[in-house]
Automatic annotation (TrEMBL):
Name by which UniProt lists this protein: Rad50/SbcC-type AAA domain-containing protein
GO molecular function: ATP hydrolysis activity
Keywords: Coiled coil
Pfam families in the record: AAA_23
A biological process term (GO) from this entry: double-strand break repair
Coiled-coil region list: 182-209
Location of the Rad50/SbcC-type AAA domain: 6-252
InterPro entries: P-loop_NTPase, Rad50/SbcC_AAA
Length: 603
């Protein structure tokens, strides 16, 4: 956070002031009130504290806001406000204008600047949001601090309700949480949980699609097998018929004296006359063929139903709802019965196929007898038989194209199932990814961050106490509290003890409390500084050092000069508000304010 310039009018006790804040080093703010005839209530805090805090955050360190900031000592004041120029965390120049009568909050970005330092030649882009809350959030982001963090890390002295060490452990932890990016962790965790919820829904949909695709592939495969069987059966029947015709033709071509004897031998194989046996067996074979096809359809349908229910016995096949336990048990019993029924159908089909084979054999014998008889009667059937052979040879299998189409369908369904499976695997990986981050951004990561931060804050605080020549004071930051019973409990706490004095912060002297609080605040400021681009280059010390000895005052000024002004990179500004004689003589750069008739101005 780097403030560059302050302009204020008609706020708090101020009339109109302009104060350069850029790279001023240590500046002592002193004052005198002609109204009270003393150095108190001169408006020092109004100039170097209230105006700046209210201008940045809309309220002072002590919480004063709204119309309470108006200087009522100025009669008929039509306008009051503060303008602050500052360098944002992104290195750009910004301007805050906050006012009452009328109420206004404007955040602007300088887009064109004057090379000769003429403000009238500058151009500004309004970044204000639709409401003041959103505008303030943007200001906080650009400053790198919100009001609470500013008070604990860049402000020390009067106006603050309680020092960090006086806060209960829960509030101390809350201050550090405001400094650390834990709010971002919470947002990231919520985002990961939302993405996890959405991807789980997509996984469920993908699983359903994969199951449906698998069922379609099984059905298509079953249909293909049926058609392949029918194709093979047709080829077999066609071959048999072709063989019979060829045989008849051969008999006609090679008539021998043994034909009658052959006919007599074949007649012994059939129960009746050839014509009657043929008629009966043809009818029987057709009936058996139809019955076998019907049984095949029933078996395929029952097999698909059995497989589907066996794969997901706990889900209703019709509505996809989870079944109660009693229904699952009933379905298991029904599934068992269906399997028995399928075996019965398979056995029945086997018996009928055997009968069909026998009937086909009988038909073949009858055809052979009739052929032989016809051969004996006449040789004129030669041309007819040769034509039949030609037809049998040239005719195509009617199931061939159906098999090709069914095979294509099976391959398409297999491809779709593979794609659905890959989607499920990919979504499952994505689900595990979001599940990991939803857990990672939770309490475990916060605890780890706090465990890392506590040693840092403790090390910085105690180093600052040593730099202030008060190494007898030790501050500890802990995430575990030891109870009187000796048991440990997870609880954030900060304790301070003196090797030469009290072991409890509340019993420290006023001077010890001020120095210890200052050292802790400096450590918090360091922690806040590493969260943004560079540490803060601005600090307000509003009469934080009272009751200090001349030696301590000299140590404090040396510390401020060494660590706050000269330390680090870039110029810094520290406003020290005090009329303490022990401090006044140690600081060369001063701003003196005077209050006359309720109005403060810079002398």
């Amino acid at each position: 956070m780097k403030l560059l310039n302050l302009h204020a009018h008609n706020v708090f006790s101020i009339g109109t002031i302009d104060l350069d804040l850029e790279d001023k080093g240590l500046v002592l703010i002193t004052g005198w009130s002609n109204d009270e005839n003393n150095g108190n209530m001169a408006g020092k805090s109004s100039v170097a504290n209230h105006c700046i805090s209210w201008g940045m955050y809309g309220k002072t360190v002590s919480g004063i806001k709204a119309d309470d900031v108006i200087n009522t000592s100025i009669k008929n004041a039509k306008h009051c406000g503060v303008t602050l120029h500052f360098e944002g965390t992104d290195g750009e120049l910004y301007r805050i204008y906050r006012a009452r009568k009328p109420n206004s909050l404007v955040l602007s970005l300088r887009t064109v600047w004057s090379t000769i330092g003429d403000p009238s030649l500058e151009e500004w882009q309004d970044l204000s949001k639709r409401n003041e809350k959103d505008t303030q959030e943007l200001i906080n982001a650009l400053l790198g601090r919100d009001h609470k963090t500013f008070i604990q890390s860049d402000f020390f002295g009067q106006g603050r309700e309680r020092s960090f060490l006086a806060l209960p452990g829960s509030e101390q932890k809350a201050v550090i949480e405001e400094i650390l990016p834990l709010n971002s962790l919470e947002k990231w965790k919520d985002k990961a949980k939302e993405e996890l919820r959405l991807v789980e829904q997509r996984v469920e949909v993908a699983e359903t699609e994969r199951c449906m695709s698998h069922e379609r592939e099984r059905t298509a495969l079953s249909h293909l097998h049926t058609l392949q069987s029918q194709e093979a059966g047709w080829d077999t029947n066609n071959a048999v018929e072709l063989s019979q015709v060829q045989k008849e033709l051969n008999k006609i071509l090679f008539i021998t004296e043994n034909i009658e004897e052959e006919i007599e031998t074949l007649m012994e194989s059939i129960p009746s006359t050839p014509s009657r046996t043929l008629e009966e067996q043809v009818v029987l074979e057709r009936a058996l063929s139809q019955s076998i096809n019907s049984l095949g359809y029933k078996i395929d349908t029952l097999t698909g139903d059995i497989d589907r229910r066996a794969a997901r016995p706990e889900v209703c096949a019709s509505c996809e709802q989870t079944l109660p336990k009693d229904r699952v048990e009933l379905n298991a019993e029904a599934l068992k019965n269906d399997r028995v029924k399928r075996e019965e159908l398979l056995a029945e089909r086997g018996e009928k196929e055997a009968k069909q084979y026998l009937a086909a054999s009988m038909i073949a014998i009858c055809h052979e007898i009739q052929g032989l008889e016809a051969t004996i009667k006449t040789k004129d059937q030669k041309a007819v038989l040769e034509e039949k052979i030609r037809l049998f040879t040239n005719v195509g299998n009617p199931f061939a194209q159906l098999v090709i189409a069914a095979d294509t369908q099976v391959k398409e369904e297999q491809t779709l199932e593979e794609e659905a499976t890959l989607r499920v695997i990919k979504l499952a990986d994505e689900r595990e990814h979001y599940r990991f981050w939803a857990n990672a951004f939770g309490a475990d990561l916060k605890t780890m961050i706090f465990n890392q931060v506590c040693p840092y804050l403790e090390r910085q605080t105690n180093q600052y106490l040593r730099d202030l020549d008060n190494s007898q004071i030790k501050v500890k930051f802990r995430t575990v509290k030891l109870l009187k019973s000796g048991d440990a409990r997870d609880q954030f706490c900060v304790t301070a003890a003196s090797d030469t004095g009290s072991k409890v912060f509340e019993l420290f002297s006023g001077a010890e409390k001020q120095l210890t609080s200052f050292a802790v605040g400096m450590a918090l400021s360091d922690l806040a500084g590493i969260q943004v681009e560079g540490a803060s280059s601005f600090m307000i010390l509003d009469e934080p050092f009272l009751y200090q000895s001349p030696e301590n005052c000299e140590r404090i000024i040396n510390f401020i000069t060494t660590h706050l002004v000269s330390g680090g990179e870039g110029g810094k500004t520290v406003l020290l508000i005090s009329n303490e004689d022990n401090l006044v003589n140690l600081v060369h750069d001063r701003v003196h304010v005077v209050k006359e008739k309720g109005v403060t101005s810079i002398a």
